[in-house]
Amino acid sequence: MATTKTKTVWYCTSCGNESPKWMGRCPACGEWNTMVEEPRQASSKSVPAAAYRSERSKPVQLNSVEATGETRVSLCNNELDRILGGGIVPGALVLIGGEPGIGKSTLSLQIPTHCPGLKTLYVTGEESVRQVKMRADRLGGNSENCFIYSETLIDNVLEEAKAMQPDLMIVDSVQTMYAGNMDSAPGSVSQIKEVAAQLLRFAKESEIPVILIGHITKDGYIAGPKVLEHIVDVVLQFEGENKGSYRILRSIKNRFGSTSELAVFEMTGSGLREVSNPSELLIPMHEQGLSGTAVAAMLDGTRSFLFEVQALVSSAVYGTAQRSATGFDVRRLNMLLAVLEKRAGFHLSAKDVFLNMAGGLKITDPACDLAVICAVLSSNFDFSIPADVCFAAEVGLSGEIRPVAQVDRRIGEAARLGFKKIYVSSFASTEHCKDDIEVVKVADVPSLVKKLFR
Ligand code: TYD
Ligand code: MG
């Protein structure tokens, strides 16, 4: 008999690519320093993720496929349901990622305790059954249909789940689970791939939705290979401002709904509370506006909401002025400052500029440009913008103010929240806007300055 020699292979932690030797740069995804050494698996020809059907299938004509209508299971949590596209789809594999302590376990345990009709199998590889019980007591609700299973061997988990046939299975977390047929340690690239593939096969065969919890590395990626995100149907990511009480759940990938959806929660003593109107916490509490703040009407996914942009402009102490932005792209800030300098004649090159987005939001919507410019100018002049004024427009390189998508929705949301005036681009079409709010149209930065800071 041939002696079995433990062989190792190198996996890329970014894309899961396999290589017989170490390389500084992964040839598949081009990332540097991502290769890790792991034991080679005897049966490394694991079933590809999509091959979950045991019988051989045949091509069918699309028209002849019977549409079964959309059946979705509500998770008794409006925000979570909305971000999933109206409830969870049977057989879906949903990954929830986030930093430690942000509330992944709390949110997922809240589903069975607030949904008494939903038979749930909660598999915990991180906490003991007692710990989960203590948390469930804190969360309140009714947990008679929730079954806790403390196990890390995925084969046992799937066996129990097949016997029990729950309506929902939650696995906390993918990094603690391991497959018995592999030698590598739990949390390694090959284990994560294998565990996720097995769970996917289980979900698709049994039509039971599975929620999978995943950790995040210090770089902000879901730990494990990028392939994990390719395998699952939905990726939700928890974000939070430095352990403040607000948590933002963002949809990064969704095969059954829109991405760029966003849900806001507040961590309270008894679990995560849904914040159905985020504008209320993102716009200023102070009655009289302070200088350096402006409110932007932004759109995230299907929802429009308003939030405060804060800027601080001060004389630079050192030779080179500092530019710093939290929640906003600093290159875009530099561009907007250059536009102010070149097109409107404001000398900001000798000023430090600090920018901050309220609530720890990360803003990518270009409609916030106008609010950024106004916050910067307001701080520069020490002139406060009235608290009932908001902004929704993009700023172009030649200083022109450009229209943004769905301006009517933004105006409607601003009016609903009691704003009296909104600045938009003069090219925006607002004919069918019937809201009780004054819409001010501006064409370029100089005319905005004339209108606003007269
Ligand atoms: P947890 O869900 O354990 O985080 P994760 O699973 O993402 O690591 O969240 C733990 C944090 O939430 C912890 O710091 C305590 C806090 N918390 C509350 O403030 N209120 C609560 O009701 C619960 C259950 C937790
Ligand atoms: Mg946890």
Number of strands: 21
Strand content: 25-35%
Radius of gyration based on Cα positions = 26 Å
Catalogue the unreliable spans. 43-51
Main sheet properties: 9 strands, mixed
Q: What does the overall shape look like?
A: globular
Helix content: 10-25%
**Count of runs of 4 or more consecutive helical residues:** 11
Query: Taking all residues together, what is the mean pLDDT?
Result: 85
How many angstroms does the end-to-end distance come to? Answer: 91 Å
Class derived from helix and strand content: alpha/beta
Bound ligands, named by name, code or SMILES = thymidine-5'-diphosphate, magnesium ion
Give the strand order, joined by hyphens, for the main sheet: 6-5-7-8-4-9-10-11-12
Describe the structure.
The structure is a single chain. Helix content is 25%, strand content 26%. The protein has 11 helices and 21 strands. The protein has helices spanning 78-84, 104-114, 129-139, 154-164, 189-206, 227-231, 279-282, 330-344, 369-381, 407-416, 445-452; strands spanning 8-12, 18-19, 35-39, 93-98, 120-124, 146-150, 168-172, 210-215, 234-240, 246-254, 262-268, 271-275, 293-300, 303-315, 323-326, 351-357, 389-391, 394-395, 401-402, 421-425, 438-442. The chain has a 9-stranded mixed beta sheet with strand order 6-5-7-8-4-9-10-11-12, sandwiched between helices. A 7-stranded mixed beta sheet has the order 15-16-14-13-17-20-21. A 3-stranded antiparallel beta sheet has the order 2-1-3, with no helix packed on it. Helix 2 crosses helix 3 (129-139). Bound molecules: thymidine-5'-diphosphate and magnesium ion. Thymidine-5'-diphosphate is lined by residues 98, 100-106, 135, 138, 267, 269-271.
